[in-house]
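Input/output pair, single chain:
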Amino acid sequence: MRLFRHTADLPADARGAVVALGNFDGVHRGHQAVIGTAQRIARDLGAPSAVLTFEPHPRSVFRPADAPFRLSPFRVKARHIEALGVDLLFVCHFDDSFLHKSAEAFIEDDLVRGLGARHVVCGYDFLFGHGRRGDPALLKQAGLLHGFGVTEVGTIADEAGGVYSSTRIRNALVAGNPREAARLLGSPWEIEGRVEHGDHKGRTIGFPTANVELADYLRPAFGVYAVRTGVDHGLDTVWRDGVANLGRRPTVGGTVERLETHLFDFDGDLYGQHLRVQLIDFLRPERKFGSFAELKDQIVQDAAAARAVLAKG
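Output:
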């Protein structure tokens, strides 16, 4: 997949694609349906398939005081999109200037003159442009004027009739239900980041941890999780079972929110590595223990519980 962080002055072979439009936070099953539709049309037309997305997430520009909410920071989103087999990924830098860009200007500047889009695909709820005036109906009108096709993808629902959405996934994670989030996403939800030095307390009790800051990730329910973890090597990532605490570590007076992961049967140096941690199941809420010894006893129980959960798949 080729990545372009702009839509202007593109090489000729990056123009004329069938383009899926959206934020695609989480790249969940609904998003996959939109992108898959663009890929099918691209195959029929003999054109490249593409995704156009926005970074940072527009919500962080609209509402900068909001708590962290992202399911997939850009690195993760790009990896998921690439795994779907998309040919081209275009990124519009969403800043105050872009915020005030009209829907018509976005169509003319980015889709027509920039991408030379042959066809665009979007979800039924896709809104764009200043004041969110742009919608699928406006895209269809513009397509007739500028000569590109438009496909609007309707609601994509599960077998129970629930619509796939990033909000629904966030709610599942905040409720401590990573298995439901995984069902909606199509794969386990992950947190990834650079392994940093912590206070090394886990090592003193036989449970060394790899520590990753949460940055702008959504905060799921704080507590202990059964996890699968691997150093990021894309499709070649080797996954290991483990147990992780996500939260502030109140027993040791912690204040920084972070993910601390213990990998079972592993004795290697992970500092500085880019770690991926899949939350598989929620074991218990985070709580403050009366002593470090009491915490150690609980960690032994947590590790046994995580092994049992992960052995079941």
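The chain is about 30% helix and 25% strand. Residues 2-153 form a domain with the Rossmann fold fold (CATH 3.40.50.620).
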